[in-house]
Amino acid sequence: MAKHILLVHPLGYTASAAVHDVARMTNIMPPIGLASLAAWLDQKGFETMIVDCYAKPDSKNRIRQIIQNQRPVLLGLSCTTSSFLDGVSMAEWAKSLLPSIKTVMGGPHVSALKAEALRGYPAVDFGVVGEGEETFAELAAGGWEQPESMQGLIWRDAEGNPQFTGRRKTLLELDSLPFPAYEKLDGYPSAYTLPIFNYPRAPNSSCVSSRGCPYACSYCDRSVFGATFRFNSADYMIAHVRHLKERFGVRHINFYDDQFTFNRQRVEKFARELIKLRLGITYNCAARAEHLDQELLRLMKASGCWMISLGIESGDPALLAQHRQRPDLDLLAERIRMIKRAGIRMKGLLMMGLPGETEASIQRSMDYVFTLPIDDINLAKFTPFPGAPLYTNIRELGTFDEDWPKLDCMHFQFIPNGMTREQLERLFTAFYKRHFMRPRVLAGYASMIWRSPDSWKRFWLSCGSFLRFASSNRRLGQDEGCSL
Ligand code: B12
């Protein structure tokens, strides 16, 4: 039985480049997947340690010490597509320090590409597809002796070829999970922080109370949890919130669920309970317009809901119809106004550069967005991820430079037919400029002086980095490779 297990969240690029990464500086969230695995494994009698290189880019010495002193039997790595190659370097380096260590990778990239993900990367011994708790615990308990009899596992046959045993037949009941082992994250909660102006108070944390999303948008990779929606009960959520508050002093929580309000009843119960208990906690969540109504919004506001993010993606109806199920821009506009009437801050999530995008569709998006009472936006550069429905025929829809470390929504790696990179970059800057020039947006940021003083403090402290970033338009130490 593998007693000591080291879990690592790779940074995705060089540690020296982290100082230029404004996205990272303004938004560091706990790796909830690894914290959840650690809590589950500890409950089964293992001893786990977590090193989060995303939060602490200079963690190389710490990892070396753990590998040399504790000699963990397993190294678990959690990787998205953009951090995958860094995870592979980490596996190679760990094996050079301790040849007997077995390396296991989980997360969205291996879940999307399955056996193919490990072909050509012999330093990664195993991959875990989908929900990781049970598969990893079985593997650690000695399952690697007969990997072909396990579920959810990518293993290597005698020739070293990766093979996938198929997805697990049953999934976990989420209320049976222990709370993620936040205490194993060095510096938690103060080492973690939500984006500037996205929270009223510190310390804050993100938290997940459901798994899966029943919608099938063309650009979304749902390979880990699939199309079902499992969720924690309201009672479990309240216990989780209490735990974060009482043990760690957390004052604001960002629920990172794909569809927080999909089950209205549990959110209603959760909100009523929060009001009754007066825990003094505020929270944010993301939702879809059709799962919000006035009564629920009022209740959520009274229970401490501070900000809601809604996926808008595009304000062009024809483009949206190609990529989202049941797109309804009128309904969306009505719900955005409803959120504002309820007194909740509103953040719009948008995307630029989807297949079918044109200069005219981007103009229509701006016209739509800038007539609505939106307080904040997040405009992502569309990125085709393995596992997203669009990925299969993406090359017919434009040019795609599939450079994994750059698949981070901060680079236009895909250029839709009929457009150029320069055009996209120009419109991207124009979009943000128009946003920041809106009087209501500026007034909103100004009001953060008293509504989120910590945000302003952070803003001034990192002002130099913002200016350097703005003048070089550089992020991630582009072209600087991975962290090892
Ligand atoms: C919160 C979140 C973030 C946060 C924090 C990420 C973090 N620190 O972990 C922030 C905002 C920083 C972020 C950033 C990015 N994210 Co993000 N994010 C999410 C989100 C919404 C929730 C992740 C989560 O906590 N899930 C809950 C936990 C319990 O699940 P989990 O992490 O997947 O872990 C489970 C399994 O994957 C597996 N597992 C995971 N790791 C391991 C390791 C081992 C050893 C094993 C055995 C198993 C295992 O077991 C876990 C427990 O069951 C997901 C969407 C989603 N619903 O999952 C997107 C998602 C993971 N993000 C995505 C992307 C694209 C990004 C960015 C590249 C771009 C961006 N700006 O959004 C960056 C990249 C950051 C990086 N360094 O990798 C994509 C990944 C797609 C892909 N193929 O790469 C997702 C899937 C969204 C989507 N549908 O497109 N993200």
Protein described:
- With 484 residues, this protein is an alpha/beta fold.
- The chain folds into two domains: 4-164, Rossmann fold; 198-451, TIM Barrel (Alpha-Beta Barrel).
- Helices cover 37% and strands 16% of the residues.
- It contains 17 helices and 17 strands.
- The protein has helices at 22-26, 32-43, 60-70, 84-97, 108-113, 115-118, 133-140, 234-248, 264-277, 294-302, 317-323, 329-341, 359-369, 421-436, 439-451, 453-461, 463-472, and strands spanning 4-9, 47-52, 74-78, 102-106, 126-128, 153-156, 162-164, 204-207, 210-211, 230-231, 252-255, 282-287, 305-313, 345-352, 376-381, 398-400, 414-416.
- Cobalamin binds at residues 12, 27, 29, 31-34, 36-37, 54, 76-78, 80-83, 104-109, 112, 128, 131-133, 136, 206, 208, 220-221, 224, 256, 258, 385-387, 408-409.
- Overall 3D form: globular
> In percent, how helical is the residue content?
25-40%
Instruction: Give the low-confidence spans.
Output: 474-484
Number of individual domains? 2
In total, how many beta strands?
17
- Summed over residues and divided by their number, the pLDDT gives a mean of 93
CATH topology of the largest domain: TIM Barrel
Ligands and ions found: cobalamin
The CATH superfamily of the largest domain is identified as: Aldolase class I
Supply the CATH architecture of the largest domain.
Answer: Alpha-Beta Barrel
What is the strand content? 15-25%
Please state the structural category: alpha/beta
Number of helices: 17
Mind telling me the CATH class of the largest domain? Alpha Beta
Lateral arrangement of strands in the main beta sheet: 2-1-3-4-5-6-7
Major beta sheet summary = 7 strands, mixed
Distance between the termini: 29 Å
